[in-house]
Amino acid sequence: MDWVPIVFVTFKVFALGAAMFFAVKWHYDQGRKADTRALLLTGGKMAALFVLAVLGVGLIAVVLSKMLGLDLGFG
Description:
The chain is mainly α.
């Protein structure tokens, strides 16, 4: 029974590694076809959206913790 986790973890590592390799390769090939300006514009939009999402989640966490009476040590 001790060999089951070893086999499954090894298989998972190889399967996820192969999937990541082909995903990165596909995106790299698609990026070479795309217009550089459009690619930079889309990347900038996604980065801005990510920053807004992180700030929103942080704000919700702070407000919720204050409502629950948790002391975060902000002052």
